[in-house]
Amino acid sequence: MTARLRADLVCGLGLLTRLPTGWLARDGLPYSMTRSIWCWPLIGAGVNALAALAYAAALRLGLAPLPAAGWCVGGLLLLCGGLHEDGLADMADGCGGGRDRARKLEIMRDSRVGSYGVMALVVALLVRVTAIAAMPGPIALVALPVAGALARAAMAGVLWRVPPARRDGLASAMASLPGPALLACLGLAGALAACLLPGARAMTACAVAMLASVLMCRLACWQLGGQTGDVLGATAVVTECAVLTALC
C-alpha cells in the first residue's frame, strides 16, 4: 500500500470508526477528508464484516437469531462509537422540534437527545436487529458488509449533491469532492455488492441505497437548506436499515 493510500485509510478510519489508527499513521503525510471518501465503502464493509462474524459465532454457540442479532448490532455500535446514530438522533430532534431552519440547526448542535431522537434510534435499532435475525446466517455474512459499504457510499452521494447548511463544521470542510475519489467510492460500493450478492439481490441493494440517498438529499434540502455532519450520519443509518430490510 502506498503512503498516500495509507493516509487516506487512516483518515477514513478515524472519521468513521473508533478503531485505533496509530499503527498505520507513520508517514507524516497530510490527511484529506475529501480525498479519503474513496475508502469509505471499504471501511463500512470491513466493520460490518466483523459484526457479521460475531453474529455467525453467536449462532454457532447456540444463541437464538434475535439475541445474536442484538449482540451483533451492539458490537457494530462499539466499533463505530455510535457516530452515525448520534447524527440520526440530532437530525430527528432538529427536524421534529424546530419551527424554521435556523432553529432546526440550533437544536441539532445541542448535545442533549430529545424525544424525536430517541424514537428514531429505537426504530433504527429495531429494524437492524430484526432484519438480521430474519436472515439465515450465511446470508447475513454477506448482507451486512454490503449494507455497510452502500451506507457509506450514500453519505458521499449526499455530500456530492447537497451544499453545506452551515459555513462551519464537518460538512462545510468537505464541500468540494475530488471527482476521482467520488467515482472510486461509488464504484467500489457497487463492486462489493456485485461480488458478494447474486445479480438480482445486488441490483436491489444498490437501487434501495440510491433511493435512500436521494430521499435524504431531498429531506435535508427541505428541512435544513443543506447538509451537515449529522445529516451524513443519519444517511448512513437510514441507508443501512433500508438495505438490510430489502435483503432480508
Helices, strands, pairings?
Elements: H1 3-16, H2 40-60, H3 65-80, H4 83-97, H5 101-108, H6 115-133, H7 137-161, H8 170-173, H9 179-196, H10 199-224, H11 229-247
Helix pairs in contact: 2-3, 2-7, 2-9, 3-6, 4-5, 4-6, 4-11, 6-11, 7-9, 7-10, 7-11, 9-10, 10-11
Radius of gyration: 17 Å
Count of individual beta strands: 0
Q: Beta-strand level of the residues, as a percent range?
A: under 5%
First-last Cα distance: 36 Å
| Assembly annotation | single chain
Mean pLDDT: 92
Portion of residues within helices: over 70%
Compressed to H and E, one letter per element, the order equals HHHHHHHHHHH
The number of distinct helices, counting runs of at least 4 residues, comes to 11
Which structural class should the secondary elements be placed in?
mainly alpha
Uncertain ranges: none
* Biggest sheet details: none
Inertia-based shape: globular
